[in-house]
Amino acid sequence: MNTTETPADAAFEPMLELEMKMAAFTADWLNCDQCSTYVAGMVSLDRHDPIRHANVLSSALNELFEMSFHARERDGAFVCRFYRRDETERIELTFPCSPEKRRFYDAVVTGLKSDEALANYLDVITSGAAPAEHAILLGLAINYDADITLFYRDTGMLTFVVDLPLERLLN
Amino acid sequence: MSTYSSHRFTAQFDVNNQEFSLCGVLRPHSVSELADDLALLRNGVETVKGVCYINLKRVTHMNNTAFRALAHVLIDATRSRPDIKLTVVASSVVAWASRLFRHLNDLSPNITVEIYDSAFYPGQTFVENQSFIPILRTQTKMTWRHEREILPRHGLREGMHIADICCGIGDFAMLLRKDFKPARIVALDHSIPSLAYARTVAENFDVQDIEYTYGDASQMLFESNQFDFVTCRHSLQIFDRPDVLLRELYRICKPGGRVYITNEKNSHCLGEPKAESIQWTYNEVAKLFAHFDMDVEMGPKGRRMLLDAGFRNVQMESFMVTNLDDDPQDFADIITAWRNVYADEMAVRRGDSPEFIDRFKQGFEDHIFAALHPRGYAGWPIWASSGQKPL
């Protein structure tokens, strides 16, 4: 799971790339909402039901954007790449991340594969102390059937690779 | 309503219905942005008896922060008020909603989650029936020859962004696309079989640029101010709350754009010979629909409704679909389909006597007779109205 490079997957077709300076991205909370809505609309146009696809993709994407926002990093860039393979959307989200935060994400992502994921999610929903990022990642796995993996780079950048089978979920 | 909510979402508590409702996009940065709205819910819960409804069917987005905050309030409510039940209502249109909100029931057996995918309006079960598809197809074929001439008078031009709301089987959208070459056309309906039919037809004709979408016309997922021309044909009359639907049509229309509606006045359907029998049956049709909270006498009310909804430059005209327009058998086929649904399904559902149903059916038979008679005349009047959204 934790390597220095994201694997090139020729089966996924690249669709769109969004890059912003972290300082610009984190300057306004509404960037999460506006970017997720705009981008989801763009990449959903040729889906079976573009409107509903954009709605559900925007919801998942917004969660990821909000998670990046919560990272509180202001240096470096925030990069979001979109790919598609058949009924699956792939989101690659790269942003700067401290080693401490990286270890936190690593532990959460490892736990997503656990049989206890749903029980953990219910605990996190009701716990006021659980960090938002924990609830977001569990929520994506439980509510969107997301397959989430992590990749590190020596440059201090962290990449989430999130596969979302949205067409199946919608139909 | 909080400051944040003023342009993103609304929260209300209806004391009479014991219902807390949220509507719109809930993506707060922190829980404090929802404080007033959650207090409204907390206070409301304290006042109810029996069941408290949490209406989330018009929430188009809710982030993790908002969901957790809502869940906390609801869980607290089940503890402070173990004597009441909480019923959360979510929309089937918004795919993430049912998957997210179901967890509330996992958290407490006193919270139930209902997915709102039927009873948008009282007549839905009749018109979403697949047996209705042939009616819709023939009706559009017969009305199009009139509407093709009428629509430009109501502002429709080539190259526009068009939304056809309550599109049914999508045939009107196909005709719009062919004759008015829109830059974009979206067609929305809540009938999955009708949309499946529409998509199949589009695929068979290699039409790829109509965006068909499953949706609730009274709470659409479209952004506001998107479309130059919004059509909604024969549908306001079968909603029990046409004002709600009209507000949505207004919302998605661009300032300066127009909303075009058509509706009937069924009691004005006519025919010769056997005019009296025909007249009696169609008067009864209006009463039958009224029994199910539908107003098929709405046609002439279109002008007032558009003005009340805030439209300007309202235009209105009527046209009569008749047996002389083309093949009289097409007209007869429409009446046959009406007879089958109105007499055999709706009147039966209302509990009408066999004697009433026989007489009711006879009027349709006489209308068919008039349509097919070599010297007969049969008519079905329709009112077309449109209004401009102010700039």
UniProtKB/TrEMBL annotation, chain A:
Q: What is the name attached to this protein's record? A: Ubiquinone biosynthesis methyltransferase UbiE
This protein's species is Rhizobium lusitanum
TrEMBL record, chain B:
Q: Which InterPro entries match?
A: Methyltransf_11 (IPR013216), SAM-dependent_MTases_sf (IPR029063)
Keyword S-adenosyl-L-methionine part of the UniProt annotation: no
GO biological process, alphabetically ordered:
methylation
What's one Pfam family the UniProt record gives for this protein? Methyltransf_11
Instruction: Cite the entry's keywords alphabetically.
Output: Methyltransferase, Transferase, Ubiquinone
- Domain Methyltransferase type span(s) in chain numbering: 164-261
Q: Name the Gene Ontology molecular function terms of this record.
A: S-adenosylmethionine-dependent methyltransferase activity
Q: Which domain of life is it from?
A: Bacteria
PANTHER family listed in its UniProt record:
METHYLTRANSFERASE
Q: What is this protein called?
A: Ubiquinone/menaquinone biosynthesis C-methylase UbiE
Give the species: Rhizobium lusitanum
